Amino acid sequence: MGCFNIYVFNRQGTCVYYHEWFRPKSVRQGAGNLQDDQKQMFGLFWTLSNFCATMDPKENVGFGRRELILNTHREAPDLTEVLQALYDDIFVEYVVKNPLYVPGQPFQSDQFVNALNAFLRQNGLLQQQQIMQAAV
Amino acid sequence: MSIYSLYVINKSGGLIYNRPGMLNDRRRSGHSLHAIASQLSPVPGCTGIELLEADTFNLHCFQARAGSGGTLTGTKFLLVVDPHASFIPTLLQRIYELYSDYVLKNPFYETEQVIKCELFDENVELLIRRYTQQAT
Asked: Tell me, which fold does domain B3-135 have in CATH?
């Protein structure tokens, strides 16, 4: 069990962070290039949230804007809380609190990557083998 | 544990059956979401969205195949249910059996056209009623 990739989007829909651990099907076979892939992923989730609002049998407002998208293996359990913790403990801690970070701008931070890997491994979502493959 | 609605979508994305009969154009976008999701998948061989979990409902999707493990026919069965409902894949399988018995074997039914078969309606109704009774 493990993760494939992660997307972080800002409010305008631009991808501020993307990381992949393991991607058996390359971007070229899908959307073409990475930029289009990220745009389509945001579009997919934007449409999904609208779609959910119309499908909703209880006429609720629907779910809010998703900013973190984590692709995992099918066997992974419900990760709602894990994603919330990922945002609270890792993203806020290592990105938002970083004085060099400009809100809404793309960022690269080794500390964040290390903390992210450690966090996912702790939750059993990342295997050592995958990190090795990503590094190659 | 309630079943909210059932939709059948043909291979070109048109709605050919819906229960309990509320029609909304947005619902057709389910078809394109499927296509984009399978394109963006990090793993090869992805056929689209199988389960969409929202706060207030779950959307299950069953794709009809030509023969066991054969190619997809493009016909999709969408079931909107309570988030706590169980055994939905089995229920969808049963609905597909009813579809093949009462719709596909109906000599007056033209493939890809709107389903107007009384026997299918009755049996789906019966199946869903039996399911909700069993579940409670």
From this structure: Beta-Lactamase (3.30.450)
